[in-house]
Amino acid sequence: MKWLILIIGAYLLGSVPFGLLIARLHGIDLRRVGSGNIGATNVVRALGRKWGTFCFLLDVCKGLVPMLIPPHLGLTQSPPSPLQLFGWLAVGTAAILGHIFPIYLKFKGGKGVATSLGVVLGLWPYLTICGLAALLIWLLAAFLWRYVSLASILAAAAFPLLLLAAIALRHDWTFQTLWPLFLVALPMPALVIWRHRANIQRIRAGTESRIGRKKPKPSA
User: Fold this and answer.
1) Rounded-to-integer distance, Cα 72 and Cα 187, Å
2) Which of 103, 106, 100 is closest to 189 using CA atoms?
């Protein structure tokens, strides 16, 4: 029953559209600005980097906070059993699905990158280490190519490979006990990449927005 309550609560928290709410407080409908997405990147376009960063942190917390609760309730041990991992991952998955398919917005939400980061950071150490490595890949890709979307796609694609590498390198991690991790490490990155399909088309067409690129001012 505790697991079920946590899963439902994580989904409802994940469904909270912080980007949309922040924009509305400034008199802006975020769905009519830029890409129309409700995530932090579009908040940057509408309100600037400060509010975009604030939205990003809130979206990360939507995934992180639910993941911190099970250990404090005694629902997981160290190391967790496969069944406990399954429940723990179900909580995180619910938060991500809440962001992507929010009940408050007729199931039309964001891309789930920031909330996914919160989830992986919260499942210490198994997903946290891989999540931090994926974050470094995101930062490097964003620095090199200046596309937030491309950086997110590359980080998501790398995550399952990073998890495989971590299990192979650490003698105290075994696939026999950690296999439930791949129930999230495979489909969730695939879902994040699928949500970026429009961005992929714009990158190929050369119309995707780059970090730091200023919109040209209209001529008088």
Assistant:
1) 27
2) 100
- In the three-class reduction of DSSP (H, G, I as helix; E, B as strand; rest coil), residue 164 is classed as helix
State phi, psi for 108 to the nearest 5 degrees: -115, 95
- Please calculate the CA angle 166-187-44 and round it to the nearest 5 degrees: 90
**Diameter over CA atoms, the chain:** 67
Interacting residues of 135 by C-beta distance below 8 A, sequence separation 6+: 117, 155
Nearest to 66 by CA among 77, 76, 78, 53: 76
Tokens 């995180």 sit at which residue?
Answer: 92
- Reported as a pLDDT band with limits 50, 70 and 90, residue 78 is confident
Q: For residues 202 and 197, what is the distance between their CA atoms, to the nearest angstrom?
A: 9
Contact 109, 102 (CB under 8 A): yes
Query: What digits encode the pLDDT tens for the residues 194-213?
Result: 999 999 999 999 999 898 76
Note if the pTM is more than 0.70. yes
* Residue 95 CA: distances (Å) to CA of 7, 92, 182: 8, 5, 17
Say how far apart CA 56 and CA 96 lie, in whole Å: 14
Name the token pair of 118: 């919160």
pLDDT of residue 219: 40
Q: Is 66 helix (H, G, I), strand (E, B) or coil?
A: helix
